[in-house]
Each structure stands twice: as structure tokens, then as C-alpha cells.
Amino acid sequence: MSRKLQDSAFRLLKKAAYDIDHDRYKKAFENLDKVEKIEKEVNNPEISYHLLFFKGFAKYRIDELEESLALFGKALEISWDLFSKEPEKEDYRSFMRDTIGSIGDILLKLEDPVKAREYISPMKGIFEKTVLGFEKLLESDPENPEYLEDFLKTIEHIGLCFEAGELTGDAVPLFDKKFDLIEKLLKSETEISEHLSSLDDSLMNFGRMCEGEEYLEEEYIEEAKRVYDRAIEIYGKVLDKDPENSETKVYLSYIYRYMAGMYSDQENLVKAEECYKEALGLLESEIENEPENIPVSENIEVSENISVPKNILFSMAIADMYKDSGLIFSDTEDTTKARDYYTKARETFRGLINKYPDLLEADKNLASSLDELAELFSEIGDFESAEMCYKDELNIYENLLQKEPENPENPEYSLKLSDIYRELGDLFAEEEEIEKARAYYDKEIEIYENLHPAEADKLMLEANKADTWNQIGRLYAEEEPETAVQYHERALPIFLEAFESDPTSEFFHEELLETLTVLGTLFKENREFEKAIRMYERVLEVQKQLLEIMPPASCHDHDHDHNLNHSHNLNHSHNLNHTHDLNHDHDLNHDLDHDHEMDHDHALEHCHDLDIETTYFELGVLHSEIGDEEKASVYHRQALERFEQIIAEQSGNPEILILTSGKAFFSGMSLLEKLESENKDSSIARKYYELALRTIEKLYEAYPMNLKLQEMLASFAEQIGDIYRDADKLEETIQEYEYAYRSLKILYENDPENPKHLHHMLGALNNIGIGYSVTDQQEKGKECFEKALALNESLAKSNPEDLNPLRRNFLLFSNYANLLEELGDSKTAKEYRKKAEELDAKLTEEDPEWTSLVEEL
């Protein structure tokens, strides 16, 4: 009876395997449930193993990965028990190999190294015992090719698991065992091509594991180099046996590419280039002088439905290698080498097209390579070469269009041509070659107008055309704003229709909002305030509609890193004044203007609801321009309420709090500057600033170790202080600079070696000193100037060659002399004026950019 039950179980297992293979999972699980009942009666470990394996495999196929891993974990325990007792049995070796391989596949599919390590941890013991079991088995028959092959595949699968968990320390020792096994197999007549391919996969994944910063330390580099060197030795032995083995040469070239990547990450560009040259040499050696003599049987598939000679394959690989060689130099200050390598790649592609026009003038793979190369040329500013690549790509798709008439409902090639014309237009738009850019954009539009898509696609086609009109409008925004308006107004009705048909389409609503906003800005700059108001009112309508159908949660529910120990820079600089009159400062360092750059994670890019506060703000400004202060006040109040709402809703999300407070600050600063210059009530602008200040202050209380927040506070106060200084509001000026000084002092105490903080403290003290001097608080002013002089002396000692301390001392001596004169100390004032004159003479002699200011003393 037991025998019949076992036979029945195996028949059901075969059926289940067939059902899984044909995606009939319900039926498969029904058969496996039947097997499970039999298994409880017969207690056969092989049936138990197969049952767990097929259940795990079925769960894997339906993406229930964690359940699958649990089942394979149990299967692993059974397979080890069988293998450990009879390792010479082929079935049991395959149980181990296949189970570990399946576990590795699932762990990779998880795409979660942390979780992978959790699963690997309890399995490590079996992995180690399996390796020892195979080693013991080989002691009995060291040259047995079946044992060697099974051991090699099992090691590869264990390595796969370690790669999924990014366990480099565990993966590296396996390479040595793998190399030993391959060397033994080389001595036999076994076909090793599959193993070389697998080795290359492992080395590629090993390279990826070593890309993190922690692996750039010398010990890891040496370990990685040892692994690569051993692989080079293995491939060399294969070539010793078969010098014409092209496949092995390709794998060997890949190793040099992996090493080049490693050295590039280490910023050892000399070594990286040497490795690329080795790889290039291997591939170039495969280019034959008379490719026409290559038999058809050696042709290799490169593009869909096109067979090409071997020379094309290797030439394409060489061009790709030139491109990679250029990449290592693309981020350096001198991009000459990058351009040289990219040019060699382009010349290789062009040579292939000339030599094999019938094959390659319609090759999509070549088109894709040219597209990538064009982007690389563009990144290093070689627009002429980029244009040449795009033009070659255009020729390919034009040929494809002629050879393969398109399905009107799927105009693949025409749309690809339109994409290339867009790239060319963008290329020359960036170069500010307006007419050339427009010519390419016009060609893109011409393609759209000649297409006859299905009814359902017509609106999208029109939207693409409208998007290109917007691109042309941007070309003329500065030089010919009237022309720009015409193009944006042409695009507007299309996006209005598109948005009405599908408001949830990100493309439609983003393009509509952008078109309205650009028009509003153009009208505003042309002082057509009524038109600008109408545009922003429509922006507001769209945003409110989007909020109804796409609530804020859909925008704000991101996984953010709440660790604020990375930088949120609000870089700033400050110029010193040399005169009592705060309305007439002489900027001596024109390159040190405020830089309002704020870094934040790309995940924080605005959703539509984060822009409503900006729209309210713009409407407030515009209504103020037409004299409707009541409406302006209403809109500013709504903007502030919106800012406060976001801050309240996102109180636990520091990333968004920084972003929002930065927006509030810059809105308030721009408004304050405008209102103060027009001598208008600026209290509403101050509210934006105070909101931003409060938000960052609270964040700093929560994250006191994050000094970047303190830098933001200092920057906020300095910039507002600048505005009040220029408006001659002395009390407010002093208040802001004193706030800035306190923040800067905290920064200096935490990082006394950073000269930037000292520089800004000097600026703050100088401005406070001038402010006190003008408001008849000369003793306080004197104290500030003396502190500033002491700080500047520290800066001068740290870098004696720097002329900036001399420039600062000139200003400080001048301002201090003026203050001493007011205090009645003419003798000391005279001494400081003399010092200022001496500095002026020295700077006139040594600094070509210095303009003598001694007459103004």
C-alpha cells in the first residue's frame, strides 16, 4: 500500500509541476494538497522535499516571496539531511543545488539587502556544511567532473544569496573555491563555456557590491583586485588552450572594465584608463582585416531580424568601450580626454555605417547607442558632436520608416523622429541658439501634424504639439516676450481641453499649470497686471480642483529620511561697508552675493498642493500693483494660512518643514525688499519671515546637533538685515544683525576652524557697529568694531597670502576712525586713518581689482 501511495504522490507532483509551468496555480495547489495528505502517511523525505519545493516555486511564481522563502528554507533542511548521508547520489546533490539557487533568485527579487540578510542568517550554517560536504566528497574522487560541476554550481548559488544580502565578506572566499574548481574542470574535457559565463555574472555582481563608499578603502580595493587578478589568470589559461576563443576574450575584456569601474570610483583615473586600454586591446584583436570572408554561420544577432558579421559585433563593443572610457573623465575639470574617447566612439559608429550601410542604416541598437553618445557629448558642452550623433540617429529611423511602413495607430518611427528633433531643439536652446533650436522644434511639430492617429490618441498628440509650442515660447521669453506670449497662448486652449478630459493626468495638469504660470509671469514683467491676475486666478482654480480629486495625502505621503545630519545649505556671503551712511555701501566682493540654493531630496519635489501658497502670494503682489491693497491683504493672509497649514500637517517631517520655511522666507524677503524700496507698509512681508524663522528655530530645538539649521537662521537674519540697512531702518537693522551674530557665534564655537563663520561674524559686527554709531550708541559701536578687528586678525594669521583680510581691515579701520572721531578721540582716529591709507596703497599695488577709496576717507 505504501508503494502505491508513493507512486501516486510522485504522479501528483508531476501534474503539479506541469500546472505551475502553465500558470494553473489553483490546480497545482489542489494536487499539492493531495500530496501533503499522502506524505503524512508514508513519511518519505524525498516526497516531503518535492512537496516543499513545488509549493515554494508556485508561491514564487505568484509573487508571494516571503511565503516562498519559508517553504524553501524547510526544503533546504531536508535536502541537507539527504545530501549529508549520501553525497554521491546525484539527486541529492541536485536537491541542494536547486534549492539554494531558488533561494538566491527569490532574495534577489526581494530587492531588499537587509531583509535578505535576515533570511540568510539561519541558513548560513547549512551553506557552510554543504561546502564542507562537497569538499569531503571530492576527496574520494578529486577529478570526478560531475562532482566538480555540481559543487561549482552550488557555490555559484550560495554566492547569489550573499550578493542579494550584499555580504561581500562572505562572497569573496567563495571566489577562490570557484576558481579552483574551474581550473580542475579546465584539465578535463568538460565544456566550460557555461561556467565562464556564470563566472562573469558573479564578477559583475561582485563589482556592483563593491561600488559603495565603504568599499573604496584600501583593504577592499586590494581584495577586489586579488579576485579580479585570479579571474584574469583563469581566462588566460583558457586562452592558452584555445588562443582563438573569442568568447573568452570578451569575458576577459569585461574583467578589465569592472576593474576600470573600481578604479574610477576610487578616483584613480590613471589606473582606470589603463584597464580600459587593456579591454580595448582584447576586442580590437578580434577585428579581422577581411570581414567579408567570415562565414554566415558565425553571424551574430545584433538587432531584431538583422544578422551581421562578427566584426560589427566587436566594433560596436569597442565603440561602447570608448564611451565608457570617456565617462571616467567627464566629471573632471579637463574634459578633453572625455571628448577624445567619445569622438573615437562616434567615429567607430560612423565607420560601421559607411562600411555596412545595408545592415546598419536601419539598426535600432545602433540608434540607441548614438542617442546615448549624443547625450554624453551634450553634457560636456560639445554640442556640434552631439548634433552629428542625433543626425545619424535620424537617418536610421528615416530608413526604418521607408523600409517598414507604419501602422497608423502605432507610428513608432515617426514618434521616435519627433523625439530626436526635440532633443536637438533642447540642445540648441541650452546653447541659446534660438533660431536653430526653433528650426528643430518646428520639424518636431511638422511630424505631429502629419500623423493620423486613432481618435483616442489625438488629444495626446495635440498636447505634445502644445508642449513644443511652450518650448518655443521659452526661447523668446527674454528677447521677444510678445512672441513668447503668442506661443504660450497657442498652447493654452489645448491643455485646457486635455485637463478637462483627464484632470488626473500628471502631464496634462502640470503642463496646464506651467502654461498659465508662464503667461502670468510674462504679463507681470510687461506690467500688464490685469492679464497676469487672470492667469493666476485660473492657476488657483486648477489647483483647487486638483485638491478635490487628488487630496494632499497623495502628495505628502512619502518615505523621507528624518535624519537631519545631512546638508540643507542656504549659502550666504556678506559685504562690509566702509561708510557711516547705511544707504551707500561699497561692495568690494561682487562675487560673494547671497546664494539662495537649498538642497533637498528629490522626493520633496512639489506636488500641486504645495504650490497654492505661491499662487496666493503672487495674487497678493499683483493686486497691490493695481492699488487694491484690501484684496492684496486677503491673498497674503491666505498664503500665510496655507504655509501654516503645511507646517502643522508636516510637523514630523523635517524635510518638508525646511522646504516650506525656505519658500516662506524667500517670499517674504522679496516682498519686504519691494515694499521697503517703495516706502510702503511692510508688516505683511515680515509675517512670512517670522513664520520661517519660528519653524527653523523649532526644528533646531528638536535637532540641536544639526548646525545647518543654525546656518539657515543666520542667513535669514543677514539677508533681512541687508534689506533694512538699505531702507535706512536702523533699529531693525541692528536687531537682525545681532540675531545673525548670535547664530554665527554658535556655529563658530562648534567649528572654530571654519573661516566661513568668522567671515560672516565680521560682516555682522561691522554692520552692527555702523548701526550703533548712527543711532548715537557709539560705545556699543566701538565694542563691535574692536571685536571685528580681533576676529580679522585671527583670519589674517590663518592665511597670510590672502588679501581679503587687508580689504576687510581697510573698511574696519575707516569705520572705526569715523566712530573715534565722533567720540572725540581725534588722535587715535588719525592713527587708524593712516593705517587705512597704508592698506589702500598696498592693495592698489598688489590687487589689480582694487579701486582706491582713500579720497572717501
UniProtKB/TrEMBL annotation:
What InterPro entries does the record point to?
A: TPR-like_helical_dom_sf, TPR_rpt
Q: Which UniProt keywords apply?
A: TPR repeat
Q: Does the keyword Transferase apply?
A: no
Q: Where are the TPR repeats?
A: 418-451, 513-546
Protein name listed in UniProt:
Tetratricopeptide repeat protein
Q: Which organism is it from?
A: Methanosarcina mazei (strain ATCC BAA-159 / DSM 3647 / Goe1 / Go1 / JCM 11833 / OCM 88)
Species lineage: Archaea, Methanobacteriati, Methanobacteriota, Stenosarchaea group, Methanomicrobia
